[in-house]
Amino acid sequence: MTGFAGLSLNQATVTKLEVAEAVDLCVRHDIPAIGLWREHVARAGLAASAAHVKAAGLQVSSLCRGGFFTHADPNARAAAIADNKAAIAEAAALGTDTLVLVSGGLVPGRRDIGLARRLIADAIAELVPVAQDHGVRLGVEALHPVFAADRCVISRLGEALDLAAQFPADAVGVVVDTYHVWWDASLLPDIARAGDRIVSYQVCDWILPLPADTLLGRGHVGDGHIDFPPITAAVAAAGYTGHIEVEIFNQTIWDAPPDETAATVTKRFPQIF
Amino acid sequence: MTGFAGLSLNQATVTKLEVAEAVDLCVRHDIPAIGLWREHVARAGLAASAAHVKAAGLQVSSLCRGGFFTHADPNARAAAIADNKAAIAEAAALGTDTLVLVSGGLVPGRRDIGLARRLIADAIAELVPVAQDHGVRLGVEALHPVFAADRCVISRLGEALDLAAQFPADAVGVVVDTYHVWWDASLLPDIARAGDRIVSYQVCDWILPLPADTLLGRGHVGDGHIDFPPITAAVAAAGYTGHIEVEIFNQTIWDAPPDETAATVTKRFPQIF
Q1: Which of A114, B75, B89, B179 is surrounded by the most beta carbons within 10 Å?
Q2: What is the pLDDT tens value at each position of chain B, 273 positions in all?
Q3: B235: closest CA among B271, B258, B207, B201?
Q4: Which helix (H) or strand (E) holds B82?
Q5: Which residues of A touch B225 (CB under 8 A)?
Q6: Environment class of residue B206 by beta-carbon count within 10 Å: exposed (0-12), middle (13-18) or buried (19+)?
């Protein structure tokens, strides 16, 4: 695991747990970091969440998530920008320098995918000075093309990188999530090209058959079809030294006892190297 | 519609019809061409299918499909090659110069996606002389990345083109299917780059929500999120002058009266321009 800061449990993997419970779960399983979600933090309270994480001695590897910029309506657009500014401040308050962005799908009622992409670039431009003020980097996440219409028109790491490269490296980077990008023939060269723009490395497996809700078709490392070691090696070679987040959306895993999930996550973690 | 040969109904859109019924449907709706499927042709008989299409005055725009090359086992691999040679001969007998390839997913039990890609290139190399002998072009189809693990590791038009470019242009081309490639930020430049390698242009729409069986999540043109006119214009500008096939996998459409489906296909067709 040379070079990496270690394992992080993304809270979405045990989504039924509140912040304090998820933090305690990490402590019980010697997981040194956690990726937090804004909805959970809002329920627990920002200050209380930050205090609990700090008291437990945990690192916060990222905050999920900002984004959803693709509104043509000025009011909806202004609301999205305001919400993302709040998310940046929350990330700083929680002690993480990484805010993950899910940029948004097609503009409601529109088919012009170029318009959606331009709106995303314009929104990030507005957020860059705020991110820099707070010492937080925006992590543009490429989502699997199955989500292009409704969640994120940025579908490949290379595309996320081309977008990020329009902005200063201390403000905008990219997220590498194996689930979303494993299929891409250009993945390894794109990771090399990303270099120090990589702000987060997230892992989970691609399992078949897909469930009815495609969002929930992720599996524990080793349960699916992704060849992790070449991807992990490329991320390391690119110079990424942060945590590796295990983020799994899967109803069966959500319904399992969290300690069982954390034990599986920890046990499977070596398989990504 | 300048430059294109006209509409073609891919038989998969009315999959419950046998060859003769699908041909008669096209005639009733003034659809000048049909894309045939091997399973249907096998049931009806190759000679009988060819005769029925010819008697009806229809063009055959393509035969679906060859491919599924990603076997490490020598016997399975030999069987796939033999089957594809038969498919080439069937295409020629049916009077079409286009055999659509769905290349295959990951090798069974293996996660090495590079291995799958090499097996595909090697298989196509074996088929090239056979294709040339029969005057048939192999159309490498990029499938949506949601099918990368189980059906086709060739996920983008650019990747299909890089593969095709390793072989003579009279033997290997690419298929542009809007459903599979609409999300790709490099789609329009890749279509321009494809030029006379484009052997088939297939259209249907990306609809949401996805059905439980992702294979069946396609819609009539206009029912979903794809911006067709820029794609059609790019295909025309690239020099493609063949038919435009409407190919829709959708249980509701399959359960609808075929004449209703054909009427909708014909009515919606102008929306792609």
Answers
A1: B179
A2: 568 999 999 999 999 999 999 999 999 999 999 999 999 999 999 999 999 999 999 999 999 999 999 999 999 999 999 999 999 999 999 999 999 999 999 999 999 999 999 999 999 999 999 999 999 999 999 999 999 999 999 999 999 999 999 999 999 999 999 999 999 999 999 999 999 999 999 999 999 988 888 888 899 999 999 999 999 999 999 999 999 999 999 999 999 999 999 999 999 999 999
A3: B201
A4: helix B74-94
A5: 106, 111, 149
A6: buried
Please provide residue A34's backbone torsions phi and psi, each rounded to the nearest 5 degrees.
-140, 145
Which single residue is written with the structure tokens 């304090």?
A: A20
Could you list the beta-strand ranges (E) of B20-58.
33-37
Q: Which residues contact B7 (CB under 8 A, 6 or more apart)?
A: B31, B32, B33, B243, B244, B246, B265, B266, B269
Q: What is the ipTM of this complex?
A: 0.94
Cβ atoms of B199 and B169 closer than 8 Å? no
Question: What span, in angstroms and rounded, lies between the C-alpha atoms of A237 and A239?
Answer: 5
Interface of A with B in 170-229 (CB under 8 A): 182-185, 206, 208, 210, 212, 214, 224-227
Q: In 3-state terms, what secondary structure has residue A46? A: helix
Beta strands of chain B (E only): which ranges?
Answer: 6-10, 33-37, 59-67, 98-102, 137-141, 172-177, 198-203, 205-206, 218-219, 243-246
Alpha carbons B20 and A254: distance in angstroms, whole number: 51
Amino acid present at A48: A
Which residues are within 8 A (CB) of A168 and not within 5 positions of it... i.e. 6 or more apart?
A128, A132
